[in-house]
């Protein structure tokens, strides 16, 4: 289930709101809300998200979570046409295998993607080479 579907269902359950009541509050069909919650519909429009936020008067943290979950639930990926060829091949391989990935493999890929963040957080000091001292010749 996509992140938005899970979060929408969770918010609705915590507040004890039925789908039909939520639909009436925000001006959408109950069947649309049901389809969102079970993941049959793609991520909602920003208009839907904003209506939901307004109708439920969500606190700032939940608003941000809802917007973030809607963004994470996108099913399409658009890449710039001037990206290197390797990016296209990598994404094709991922697309071909994504349905067969295990949870461990998914976590590994996510950790690899976070590597750049962890390296940029560290303060990297330049490595200096030490010059060797020349041995003094033994005097006779």
TrEMBL record:
Record-linked CDD domains: HTH_XRE (cd00093)
InterPro entries, sorted: Cro/C1-type_HTH, Lambda_DNA-bd_dom_sf
Transmembrane segments: none
Domain called HTH cro/C1-type: residue spans: 8-63
Alphabetical list of Pfam families matching this protein: HTH_31 (PF13560)
PROSITE patterns in the cross-refs: HTH_CROC1
Superkingdom field: Bacteria
Protein name from the UniProt record: Helix-turn-helix transcriptional regulator
Organism of derivation: Methylomonas rapida
Record lineage: Bacteria, Pseudomonadati, Pseudomonadota, Gammaproteobacteria, Methylococcales
């Amino acid at each position: 289930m996509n992140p938005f579907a899970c979060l929408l269902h969770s918010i609705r359950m915590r507040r004890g709101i039925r789908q039909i009541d939520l639909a009436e509050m925000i001006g959408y069909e109950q069947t649309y809300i049901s389809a969102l919650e079970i993941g049959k519909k793609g991520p909602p429009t920003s208009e839907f998200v904003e209506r939901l936020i307004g109708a439920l008067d969500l606190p700032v943290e939940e608003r941000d979570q809802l917007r973030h979950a809607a963004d994470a639930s996108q099913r399409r990926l658009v890449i710039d046409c001037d990206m290197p060829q390797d990016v296209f091949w990598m994404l094709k391989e991922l697309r071909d295998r994504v349905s067969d990935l295990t949870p461990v493999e998914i976590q590994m890929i996510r950790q690899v993607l976070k590597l750049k963040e962890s390296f940029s957080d560290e303060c990297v000091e330049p490595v200096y080479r030490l010059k060797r001292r020349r041995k003094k010749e033994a005097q006779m």
